[in-house]
Amino acid sequence: MHFSSEQRLDGGVLERDFTLGGIPGTLWTPEPAPNPTAAPTPLILLGHPGDLGRMRPRLLGRAAQAAADGFATATIELPGAGERPRLPALERARTELRRTMQAGETVGPDVIDALVLPLVDAAVPEWQAVLDALLALPGLGGPVGFSGGVIAVVTRLAVVEPRLTAAVLFAGSFVPAATLAEARRVTVPLHVLLQWDDAGNDRQASLDLFDAFGSAEKTLTANLGGHTGVPQHAGDAAAAFFRRHLR
């Protein structure tokens, strides 16, 4: 892991950009406690739909909230997004998605699979490699949480990554049938946020996915509003969820 820049933000949060094997990302850590024998800082992985530069302001708000609770956070640029090399299969799927939506047609399962599953296959091993590197840094340790999306990526990660102990999931992306099947194997505590009026979200698919999760503890919070209209109190509830499970 190579750190390319660092700066101290408000509240003492240290922001460091990094690359790992061509994967760009950012790590935010809270101001260290004065006790050198303190327990390692828990870590929350921050998911987003792509284009880290565009998403940074929103991610920074989530990182600042987590730092105030004593948690480090980290994010990566998804494969094929931002300034990373394009993935031809994903580009073809996105072109077909745009054509389908512009024509007013229903987005079928073949388009959803082509759009989401290659991203899941590429992104999950990268998240695991970055997690390996982050937990090797001084002062960082488990437990590990995940906050955000893409929800199919996080579902797969929760199945294959035993270090993940709790997740806040953002509904609002397409859900392949394979993800519904994987959800039955997810057992970590979940807190799912759903925007009821999200124009780009198949609400029923999100509800079906929540129902499929095998977790003994799972909560669904639905609020009126569009994709980016998550109210502050919903974010507060998600933060409280992590305080319960990561401390």
The chain-level structural class is alpha/beta
Remind me, CATH topology?
Answer: Rossmann fold
Strand order of the largest sheet: 1-2-3-5-4-6-7-8-9
Estimate the strand proportion. Answer: 15-25%
Provide the helix percentage.
40-55%
What is the approximate shape? globular
How many domains? The number is 1
Question: Radius of gyration in whole Å, from Cα?
Answer: 18 Å
H and E string: EEEEHEHHEHEHEHEH
Polypeptide structure, described:
This protein has 247 residues and is an alpha/beta fold. The chain has one domain (2-84, 121-246): Alpha/Beta hydrolase fold, catalytic domain (Rossmann fold, 3-Layer(aba) Sandwich), CATH 3.40.50.1820. It is built from 7 helices and 9 strands. Strands 1-2-3-5-4-6-7-8-9 form a 9-stranded mixed sheet, with helices on both faces. Helix 4 links the parallel strand 6 and strand 7 (164-170). The two termini are 26 Å apart.
Could you give a short description of this structure?
This protein is α/β, with parallel strands linked by helices and 247 residues long. It has helices at residues 52-68, 88-102, 109-135, 151-160, 177-183, 203-212, 232-246; strands at 2-8, 14-20, 23-29, 41-46, 72-76, 140-148, 164-170, 190-195, 218-223.
Task: Please describe the topology of this protein.
Layout: E1 2-8, E2 14-20, E3 23-29, E4 41-46, H1 52-68, E5 72-76, H2 88-102, H3 109-135, E6 140-148, H4 151-160, E7 164-170, H5 177-183, E8 190-195, H6 203-212, E9 218-223, H7 232-246
Parallel strand pairs: 4-5, 4-6, 6-7, 7-8, 8-9
Antiparallel strand pairs: 1-2, 2-3, 3-5
